[in-house]
Amino acid sequence: MMSKEFMIKQKRPIVGKKAKKAAAWKFTLDLTHPVEDGILDSANFETFLKERIKVNGKTGNLGNIVQVGRMKNKINVTSEKQFSKRYLKYLTKKYLKKNNLRDWLRVVASDKETYELRYFQISQDDEESEADE
């Protein structure tokens, strides 16, 4: 008989784990109103995103990991790696500031995967009533 000291538990060999297909992160930027009004160029914004999006801490490193595409007035960003929707909002605000549009447009989440550029709602009635007082 073997004593307990000499008995070694053998670990069961790890049976091959199935590799899961990488989840894709898809986000959409809806630029309909500013593009129709002619104050924003969607092609220019698309190139801005392609130049500025960082992958592994480096700009201009999109490769096959991140795709930026434009369909009429919408820009689609698809990523195989984890990609933050908040980062897309940050870059959009940066573009608006660079082109002096930040005072007129704001970035609003219309649903879980979509941002929309909207105009600020300025109520003229409030301004007029304050001026009268």
From TrEMBL:
Highest taxon of the lineage: Eukaryota
Any one annotated GO CC term: cytoplasm
Family: Belongs to the eukaryotic ribosomal protein eL22 family.
PANTHER family: 60S RIBOSOMAL PROTEIN L22, RIBOSOMAL PROTEIN EL22-LIKE
Pfam families to which the protein is assigned, alphabetical: Ribosomal_L22e
Gene Ontology MF terms in the entry: RNA binding; structural constituent of ribosome
Keyword Cell membrane: no
InterPro entries noted in UniProt: Ribosomal_eL22 (IPR002671), Ribosomal_eL22_sf (IPR038526)
BP GO terms, sorted: cytoplasmic translation
Keywords assigned: Ribonucleoprotein, Ribosomal protein
Protein name from the UniProt record: Large ribosomal subunit protein eL22
Signal peptide extent: none
